[in-house]
């Protein structure tokens, strides 16, 4: 392509994570403009499809968090319109969006993931909440992590150290979805490992270590001060290499494309536990992927431009 690619960043939407999406979109647009790319930002509304038809951007970058941005639906629409876009296709997005399904896929690929159960809210009503919770604690033990089976930004996530705290954790979880993923909490170093795909192929960025005063929930993620980040993570070179290899293995097993962020726990015995993966990672000033880019020594504008160029359709020969 002789001209600089024209990029349309999608940000906003109607999910619980609208504010984060708007901040992500603004940051990416600023970086792309710094890389001399013609970029505009559009919300997901009734004006979007006419705008796509009229402007025909070279690439769309969906920076939508939550349901429509990560469950494959907006990507289905872009495929219907034959508009190239940054990121994973719709089918793989749907698999990654469902945390239990993603865990089963990576487990089949040989990765470790904490033991878990997936239970709908209706089951608690039908069988009696106390009996169900007692069975969960009896089987999985404590501590537990309770989270919506779908969703991002740690909304509705609770760390449960005592059985008496489980009812409130279930209430918090069901406020954001009607199916809960309850998994054994594993101790260790929590890291976020980002993978980017450029013209040189897949590359694992330096992992970012997350140290927080409690659960790494929505407030801890987006309000500076609650959480301390180490970018790169305080790992040995062997540990860092293993974490990066695990993130790439998850990216490939799930059929992801261009960009992803995998959340992992490195246990004291060296086992790396897969928690979840994100196909539309946050790009705000406190988000993990941008921190990883900076830790790699790669300038954000240059990396984002490389990702965009890799998403362009191959020229017809």
From TrEMBL:
Pathway assignment: Cell wall biogenesis; peptidoglycan biosynthesis
Cellular compartment(s): Cytoplasm
Domain ATP-grasp: 103-309
Cofactor: Mg(2+); Mn(2+)
Any GO CC annotation of this UniProt entry: cytoplasm
Residue numbers annotated as active site: 17, 153, 287
A Pfam family hit: Dala_Dala_lig_N
Cofactor binding notes: Binds 2 magnesium or manganese ions per subunit.
Function noted in UniProt: Cell wall formation.
Name of the protein in its database record: D-alanine--D-alanine ligase
Classification of source organism: Bacteria, Bacillati, Actinomycetota, Actinomycetes, Micrococcales
Name of the gene encoding the protein in the UniProt record: ddl
């Amino acid at each position: 392509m002789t001209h600089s690619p024209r990029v349309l960043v999608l940000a906003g939407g109607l999910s619980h994570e609208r504010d984060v999406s708007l901040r992500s979109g603004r940051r990416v647009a600023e970086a792309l403009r710094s890389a001399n790319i013609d970029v505009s930002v559009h919300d997901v509304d009734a004006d979007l499809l006419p705008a796509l038809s009229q402007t025909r951007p070279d690439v769309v970058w969906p920076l939508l968090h939550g349901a429509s941005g990560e469950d494959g639906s907006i990507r289905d629409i872009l495929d219907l319109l034959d508009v190239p876009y940054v990121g994973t296709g719709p089918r793989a997005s749907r698999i990654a969006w469902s945390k239990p399904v993603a865990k089963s896929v990576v487990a089949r690929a040989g990765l470790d993931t904490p033991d878990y159960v997936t239970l709908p809210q209706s089951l608690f009503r039908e069988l009696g909440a106390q009996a169900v919770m007692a069975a969960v604690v009896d089987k999985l033990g404590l501590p537990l992590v309770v989270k919506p089976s779908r969703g991002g930004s740690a909304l509705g996530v609770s760390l449960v150290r005592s059985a008496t705290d489980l009812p409130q954790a279930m209430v918090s979880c069901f406020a954001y979805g009607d199916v809960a993923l309850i998994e054994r909490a594993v101790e260790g170093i929590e890291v976020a490992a980002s993978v980017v795909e450029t013209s040189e192929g897949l590359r694992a960025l330096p992992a970012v270590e997350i140290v927080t005063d409690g659960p790494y929930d929505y407030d801890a993620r987006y309000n500076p001060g609650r959480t301390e980040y180490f970018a790169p993570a305080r790992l040995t070179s062997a540990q860092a290499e293993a974490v990066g290899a695990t993130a790439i293995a998850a990216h490939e097993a799930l059929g992801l494309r261009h960009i992803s962020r995998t959340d992992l726990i490195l246990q004291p015995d060296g086992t790396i536990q897969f928690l979840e993966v994100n196909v539309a990672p946050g790009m705000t000033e406190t988000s993990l992927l941008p921190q990883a880019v900076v830790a790699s020594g790669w300038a954000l504008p240059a990396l984002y431009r490389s990702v965009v160029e890799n998403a362009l359709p191959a020229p017809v020969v």
